[in-house]
Amino acid sequence: MRTSSNPAFKNLPKGGGYANFNYGQPAGAFGTQGQAPTAPQQTGRPLSIDDIVTKTATTLAITIGTAAATYIIGGAASWGLALPAAIVGFVLAMANIFKKKVSPALVIAYAAVEGVFLGAVSHLFATMVNPGIIMQAIVGTMGVFAAMLVVYKTGAIRVTPKLTKWIIGAAAGAFTLMLVNLIAGFFVEGGIGIRGDGGPLAIGFSLLCIGIAAFVFLLDFDEADRAIKSGVDARFSWYIAFSLMVTLVWLYLEILRLLSYLQND
């Protein structure tokens, strides 16, 4: 069974095939507890593509709404919200990832807080670079999402176990480099040079991250497709919406950063 690099999908039922999930069997993939999460009772109808579209649209609308409000506030007031929103958003993301039962309230809260974070960061970039960069980043993000959806639906790139391992490894490597750069930044100005200065290394790293995020969408689409075919409960659409939002946020920030490098040259 393939696993997505997006950890939100660890909460989806897993097993040997679409119709058989082997609930309750010991498996390391479910964490350190050594036992798979208990199977959710099918209290409602099976998951459908409409459920995923609706929940994803809802979370996206909430994120855009809070982002727009934060952006309009502007100035030091909005900038001061960036760090608190980032911390709260991280906590909510972890809660969504490790909670064994779906919680629409947590997903909605994550979407709202991430909107505040994105609005604050966007206003900062608009002030430091130019306001037009925000729309460019939004269009770029939606363009990549749409392109990867077409690629997945047409089968131009098949999500194989080998490809999945490569994408997961690349994503893990990228986040490790980000962490190393952050820690190094406390001791050396500019860290290891993959962020901030807009040099060739920073531009190359942003392009790499955009490429990885784009391919993560393929894994997300594949996991969503498997969930639909396996007939899991419709409420799992909230997990899928959350997972897609995580990737969208990462992609938007990387495109925004890349555009700032290019326009500062």
TrEMBL record:
Keyword terms: Membrane, Transmembrane, Transmembrane helix
Domain of life: Bacteria
Keyword rRNA-binding tagged: no
Membrane-spanning parts: 52-73, 79-98, 105-126, 132-154, 166-188, 200-219, 239-259
InterPro entries from the UniProt entry: BaxI_1-like
Protein name: Bax inhibitor-1/YccA family protein
Organism: Actinopolyspora erythraea
